[in-house]
Amino acid sequence: MDEKALLAQIKGLELQLAVLKARVRRLSAKTTPKTFADLRGILKGEVSSSEEEIDAVRYHFEWDNTKER
């Protein structure tokens, strides 16, 4: 191998090492467990649809290319 190929291989190994170090840091970082109670109200004020509007779209039937809700 010539010098340029070796330098390119070293650079690639250094980048792989940096990625692995970042993964280890992320795994070792302590995070508090999340519960469903933590999620309550997280979208409050963000959604302009009511529950009735969501239910109306969720349930529909199709007969002979006509949609019924």
Protein traits:
69 residues; mainly alpha; 2 strands
Descriptive notes:
- The chain is mainly alpha-helical and 69 residues long.
- It has one domain.
- The chain is built from three helices and two strands; from the N terminus they run H-H-H-E-E.
- The protein has a two-stranded antiparallel sheet.
- The longest helix is centred in the N-terminal third of the chain and has 26 residues, at 3-28.
Give a summary of the structure in a few sentences.
Helices cover 55% and strands 9% of the residues. The chain is mostly helical and 69 residues long.
Output the number of helix runs. 3
Could you say which structural class the secondary elements and strand pairing correspond to?
mainly alpha
- Indicate the mean pLDDT: 81
The share of residues in helices is 55-70%
Number of strands: 2
What's the number of domains? Answer: 1
The best one-word shape is elongated
Indicate the low-confidence ranges by residue numbers: none
For the largest beta-sheet, the strand count, sense and barrel status come to:
2 strands, antiparallel
Which series of helices and strands comes N to C? HHHEE
Distance between the termini: 70 Å
* % residues in beta strands: 5-15%
Strand order of the largest sheet: 1-2
Radius of gyration: 27 Å
